[in-house]
TrEMBL record:
Component of the elongator complex which is required for multiple tRNA modifications, including mcm5U (5-methoxycarbonylmethyl uridine), mcm5s2U (5-methoxycarbonylmethyl-2-thiouridine), and ncm5U (5-carbamoylmethyl uridine). The elongator complex catalyzes formation of carboxymethyluridine in the wobble base at position 34 in tRNAs. It comes from the Eukaryota. Residues 453-754 form the ELP1 N-terminal second beta-propeller domain. One of its GO terms (molecular function) is tRNA binding. InterPro entries: A-sol_ELP1, Beta-prop_ELP1_1st, Beta-prop_ELP1_2nd, Elp1, HB_ELP1, TPR_ELP1. This is Elongator complex protein 1. Residues 778-843, 853-956 form the ELP1 alpha-solenoid domain.
Amino acid sequence: MRNLSLWRHSSVSIPSSLRSEEGAFSAVAFDLELNATYVAHERCDADADVEIQIWRIAEGLQQELKDESVTIEPTLLTTFSTSASPASNPWASSSSSSTSRPSEIVSMRLLAETRALVLVTCAGDIAITEVDEPAPLVDVVGSVDAGIKAASWGPDDSLLVLVTGDNRLILMTSTFDVLQENPLQNSDFGEDAPIALGWGAKATQFHGSLGKAAAQAGLDLAAVGSSPDDDERPRISWRGDGAFFTVSALAPPSPDLPLRRRILRVYSREGALQSTAEPVAGLEHTLSWRPSGNLIASTQRFGSGPEADKLGLGKGRNGRHDVVFFERNGLRHGEFELREVREGVAVGQWEYKVREIGWSADSNIMSVWVERDKGDLVQLWTMGNYHWYLKQEIYATSGPSNVPGRFTSVIWHPENASEIILTTSSEVIQRTYVWDVFTSLSKPPADSGSVAVVDGANILLTPFRSQNVPPPMASHILTFTLPSPPSPAQAFIPRVPVPVHISFSPLKDFLAVLWESGYIEVWDLQTRLEPGRGPAMAPSQVWMGLANPDGAEIGALSLNYRQIVISASATAESLVSLAVLGSATDGGEHDVVSVIVILPSGTVAQRRRVRTPELHGRLIPAEEGIIWQSSSGEIFTASSTEDLFSPKSRFPEFCYHALHVSVVPDGVDTPSPLFVGFSSGGKLHVVDDEGSARTLTTNVNSFTVASEFLIYTTTAHYSHYAPLSTLASLLKLPATTDLPEWESRRVERGSRIVTAVPSNMALVLQMPRGNLETINPRPLVMKIVRADIDGGNYRKAFLSCRKHRIDLNVLVEHDQEAFLRRIPSFVEQVAEVDYINLFLTSVGQGSLPADLISRVCDGVRLELERRDLKKYVSSILTSHVMKKSADHEAALALLLRLRDSEPELVEDAVKYIIFLVDADSLFNTALGMYDFSLVLMIAQHAQKDPREYLPFLRELRALDHYYQRFRIDDHLRRYEKALTNLSLAGAERFDEAMAYVERHRLYDKALALWQATDRYESVLELYGEWLYERREFKEAAFVFRQAGKLSKAMVAHEKALDWQELFELALQTNTSKEDLESIGYSMADELSSKKRYSDAARVFLDYVKDVRRAVIALVQGNLFSEARRVIALHSCPELLEEIVHPGALESRAQITEDLNEMKEQLRKQVQRLRELHIRKVEEPDAFYGVEDADLHNVDVMTDVSMAPTAFTRYTVAPSTVSRATSKRSSRSKRKMERKIGSGRKGTVDEEEYLLKSVTKLVGRFTSTQADAVSLIPHLLQFTDEHRSEGLSLQDELAAFEKELRQAVEEIWQLPENNVDGRAGDGWAARMQEHEKKRQINPLEKVARPEVKKQDWNLKLPVHGGS
């Protein structure tokens, strides 16, 4: 669906004073390094010698300087003379019917490596000239006495192939050393000769009943000849990779083969013959190997009758002329017919011939140089979907006195794929083409999605809104004809030239067609927008005329128009407004835009010209006004009152494909202009009228604008959908703002956008081969769906979502409150039962909130019940089932209501709900409604086995009412409801009920059911026993007390160590003194075992009256003050020396032991931390295990959940490595956490473990200090031994406190970061550096502990008594 559009047309002429009028340009060479072109100009002097001038044209014909384009005049490089082709050569007296003299230069090539221009002449000379020399001279480095018929350099300039006048093939190097020299004519097939097995031969293949005899007869080589237009010269063409080349040459007649014929031979780059093409009658001299390598192109003449048989043409109708293709193995591979000949022309009276054919550098465009009696032309052909399209024609300018224009050479640029260079006798022409898609940009509801494809004089039209016709077919073919009678300027044209550009109107269904001469036709397409029968289009011409009425008409090329745009700013009184871009008639330095306003009557209301600031610009299709882009990317707008352009904005670079749209940015009410451009380098630019620009991507290959989205495809095979409003807002932000992630989807490899049809939510893509694919991207679909929802058109929105598999939740989610208000309208529009069921199912299974789902289902259900309960019974059932949570009972209750009045309807409804809900679940729900008839109905329609449910139902029927319901609820595991029914089944069921409560732990429900009965205390007792078994003794004691079970409550209090409550109940129950003492001893011992020494002493004193045991308990708890108070209170001084004094010394010894243990731990850990700090600072890579020889057997990257830094240089590598996956069970995770927290020596977790250990040590010392505070005053008051121990304990505490403070200060001092954190360049180094950065300093993880200062150092006299 792509077309070729002309972008640049430039020409350079050599001043007549510097060249001869009789001469002509004959050859072209390219300097890719300096972007220069070399052309050779030839003329014959009086001595029949040929004078050759070499001219250099810099900067590709033009050099753009700032705001103006300056034409660069060619400079003469050198001049030399050579002899004309020797008359002794057998090919010199050619019988060619060419209308022009053959060029003396066979080949001209600039060798980039040596900067030498090499010329090969027909006379046999090989000459070189150094182009970088100030005054270069021509040096003939070698000659071929027999002359040279053809020459061609390989693509890499390393090899040169020559065909000499005596029909020899010479292969030379770039230094002109001969590698191979062989005869050109060879009867061998070549190294790739096929092996005939019989079954693959043509004679054995199926050809139909008529063709079988011909296939078996074979080809008569005596009847194979060449075209009379053959110029008898050989041709050489290289494959694009330089591995092979092909030679086309005439085979001389022989007694057995009286006709001369063309033979194609394929050679390797070593000069070895590979294959010979199959004989083709009427094969001509043209030859070109497609650079991609799959096809070798030539031409073939056909004819019928004696004259054609005499010449040996191909069998076919007179006038048929084909471009034929060959494979490398010599076999034919398709063809297509040229379009130059009128029907019925006699053989030899064709009035034209094909001079040469060629390929663009990317193999996408084939040029056919046609030499006609009335003037030359070059046709540009492209292929899509196995069809060849004639896209453009280039006519040679006529000379003075209407002398037919002639081209002297046609060559494609070797790097710029769409640039072609043509030479005439007096000028060098450069034309650059680009790929373009002629598509309609009209907006809904009139968007037709029409696309126009140029194919010669035909325009193939397809409106993709109503039809999707694959190319090369089309919905309508618009064929142009010459006006009758033709004007004198048109008399020599056998057919209508190919249009140069096409434009669709953005407002009306109009099409404007432009020819290069300025001739314009405007058509009203009358496109049918909706699918249906009848023609898709009925075009009618509404206007025809010239862009420049003072210039020539169609066919005369004095003007150079290349683009037409139908403006969107036409007035209500006008029919259409056109803007036509062309080159100035005087060949100046500016382009001209002709503005034409046409009235409905067909008359021109306004015609004016606006001069552009420079050449080679492009009109931008705009929603308002006329916008032009310069070759540097600057954007101008045309004034509506004055004939001038004013600057508007600027692209970062020239964008051939550009669009102008009006966008309303997010949060703004007024629209603003936005320009979108696609550069030749694959960059997609967006700019606004303030000059802000952003580059969205650098790998785009096509784009369009539709449904307020910028849609573009990339070479990564994705299509992206960027909201225009977001882009407009993005341009207001700083350029460093990251681009958002727009919605995208995968597309087929190499896909390009053809057009978008917003009304159909469709995007049409074309694959590289040419076939089409229509997709419905989610953003386009959602745009239309949301618009339909906002407009209340729920049916259209629903059908769109259903067709394109969009979640139907969007109907609710887009505007929840509006949908709930419009539920009656929704049900009215979407009235089909199946559609409503689909909607409710989607909503119920969607991600909407549960309360919203229930509101939607209830709202739809109420509306359906109001309209027709019987019709929508299945939808009503669906609404019950899809609620959150599902109301199966309500659905079955509806069936019960309709069971008697509508039995057939209920039967269908039961089948439907069984389909909707699991049959077993539905059976249980019906059973839970205690309706056995409903249960049987569900079971029968669910096709359940009666042996499974009938015995159970019979058993239930035989039970009492409440016990029956109990059994049903118990079967359905509705335990609380079952207990309720069991409680109503009678007092005789109480024991069973209690067992049921205990089995299912329904204590709360049982307490509620029996609260006001005489069985309540029994339930409480059962509950208390359950709590006691769960070891919840405090709660069990409370329940037992409520139940009046005080003995059980006392046992529970004793287990809970609630000694106050225990002795309260013991006294209330008048427990005997002996039992009370027994309880006291038992409770006190339990309290002491739990280190509740104060409570134990209280029990000994209050309830056992045992002072000695009380003092012992207090001394064990280090409560010396309380112990001395109790001794004094009860007048037991003997206990002081017997219990308190030894106890104080034991406590002092314990503190000393704890201090020594803490001191040893502290010193070991501080020393280890010092070592770790030193190693981590001095050897960070070794510490973290980077490039360590000890770790070569440890694959730390196989498990992504374990960081590489889990190993250090101090870790021993295991012999085998676990290859476990990254998924870990909870058990293994806990095990890993224990490993990390264990602080195993040699791991990076060791430092954190040591810091936590020191923190715990500080807390332990704080507790020890508290014990010392309560002990030291008593030690100082007892005996001399006690005083001595007290003083030494003070010293020990002071010394350890000092040491501990210093250690904490040293450990928690952050070291200076002197480690070089630069990572290496390798992947492993970067990963390990990342892991090191990920490690947090353990000093930041573990807070620094505070060593508290306690006042235990008492300054007392060292003498005194106890």
